[in-house]
Amino acid sequence: WCWFGSLLVALVSPRMAGLRLDFGLLLEPLGFIKVLEWIFSIFAFATCGGFQGETTLLVSCKGVVNKTVTAAFAYPFRLNAVVFSAPDPKLCGGTWTDVHLVGNFSSSAQFFVTLAVLVFLYCIAALVVYIGYKHLYQQNSKFPCTDLAVTVITAFLWLVSTFAWAKALADIKMSTGASIIPGIESCKVPGTTCFASVTSMGTLNVSVVFGMLNMVLWGGNIWFVYKDTNLHNQSNRISQSP
Which UniProt keywords are given for this protein, alphabetically ordered (predicted)? Predict the structure, then answer.
């Protein structure tokens, strides 16, 4: 954001202002990777933030056969607020009591999705600079250095958020699958049996994959951003000097 603010200051300067469109930069590694980062960030927050699922219990007991009890859950996965409600108060002879799912995984999910949204916005700003104001980017050494710092930090945040979300996803699967049945007292009543089924979480698995891809992209992009900084130029001059 400091880089974006510096850009706005530079744009109002009469000496440096001026839009110079150059879409050829999109074919270079710096621009091409930024486009991929932009696209993959969309898939990351869409596959995670747009998920909706449910756990269904098939309850069989004396006098009542194959009644279903459903608990719907979605992003941000505050499962402790989701409850299995009996379809009627006399289910299983009145022995059924409302049961909540266990766990609150909103912090990991929101961290992952928020990072993806911020990256999406940053990529748009960066592409505007690369395509229309490359001359400003090259003339002011602060822009490449700030871009490098943001790239390094973002790569690290993708690493942290992806692994945190992957761990949370594993816990979500445990908290919504068949392993919840032993913890439901109503399913322990003599003559009562419960079978659990849960919505496929394939899209959530895909979100973890896109998190890893973003991590690799941003980590690899560090080198291409570094080449545009004074740090790389200085190292080249030192290596070429006698």
Answer: Glycoprotein, Membrane, Transmembrane, Transmembrane helix
Q: Region 71-86: what's the mean pLDDT?
A: 86
List the structure tokens of 108.
């990991």
What is the pTM (predicted TM-score) of this model?
A: 0.81
